[in-house]
Fold:
Amino acid sequence: MLLLITILLAGMAIINQALNSGVNWAPTDTAALSKDIKVATVGDSLSVDPPSSLEYYHYPSQLELFYDVTQSDSFAVGAAQTGSAQNPKGMRLQYEDSVANGGYDLLIVLGGVNDVASGRSVSFTQENLGYIYSQAKAKGMKVAAIPILPWGCYYTSDGNKVAQTKEINNWIEANNDVDYFIDVYALFSDGNDCLKEEYSLDTIHVNRAGHDKLAEIINAIVFEEQDGDMACGETGCSAAGDDIACGWPDSQVECKSGYNDGEGRCEIVCPDGTTKTDVCVCSTISPTPTNTPTITPSNTTTPSVSITDTPIVTTTTPSPTGTFITTSPTNTLIITTSIPRTNTPTVSRGVTQYYEMPSGTIPPTATDSNTTTTLAIGLLVLLAGLYLNSLKSKDKLT
Structure:
């Protein structure tokens, strides 16, 4: 019964993980948009563009500068929440003041983390985002929604806030007014609901690589026809790291650059606990114990049995009358055991040591492994005894 309960709980955990990590790149009935359109973005500091540092472009500008979208404007404000606050201007007010009557064709929405961080309820965020989505749809715009990115390692975050973040994200994904759900949470997460170091500026804001990746994925989902993913092992994806072309993250296959004069190749990304043993193969490899020598007995006893006519001379203990010599009869059975001297390894605390075995000592491993040899010796002894007995019988007859 305990085993059955354990299996059941493990299965439930796997199902829950699959549901929470599911990826939906876009509704199947939403076609790719033309790039000859006007795009607006509302949000918080993650979408502010141009950034105050001016060191690199954030994702809204990249759509226009690098992906040939005709016009891409951002009205995001740093530290903004989703409501109608005046300072900093909330996302709802950003939409009403700058987007609603601006003749835009596509609205990109990324926000909500400041709501959760400040203690706002989940319903507060859902109400404001729902308003923005529905009003944009009523104006004839398409809506692309980006979920709240992982921020579990930020100093104001905790387990409850991470749970609220996921609840909001699930609601965004299921909202009927969202045409394109840009599902990047799993891609940007380190597996523990923290922003992946590769994309992290300070565990809550994304860095240059993060903005590059956001722009790449938005372009792929919204503006490019989905003709099907490249197969694992196939070459031709962008050397800059066009993971989407390989089906990432649905397929767990990404584009590896530097292959074949810089051309990219789709290769599998192996989960924890496995090792890539081929371009598209992950294998579970058991660890090999260290300092564990394989001991093969080298001192196998090889008895030999022979019958000889050579007399054996032995010396007995001195007697009062002096030492006398005893001569053995002929046809004496001689059993000789040859045991070579050897160094046998032994292991103590992970260090291989050696001791010298005394000559003439048969180790247990040799004795135990030579049962067949022992039986053979016994059989030979028996045959020799029968032979000697027959010789004695002949002597008596003669």
Remarks:
- The chain has ten helices and 16 strands.
- The two ends are 83 Å apart (CA to CA).
